[in-house]
Amino acid sequence: MVTRLTLEGVVRGQTIDLEAETGIPDGTHVQVTVEAPSPTLEEKHAIIDQVAGVWANDDSIEAIFEGIEAERKKSKPRPVELDSDPTS
Question: For the whole prediction, is pTM greater than 0.85?
Answer without folding.
Answer: no
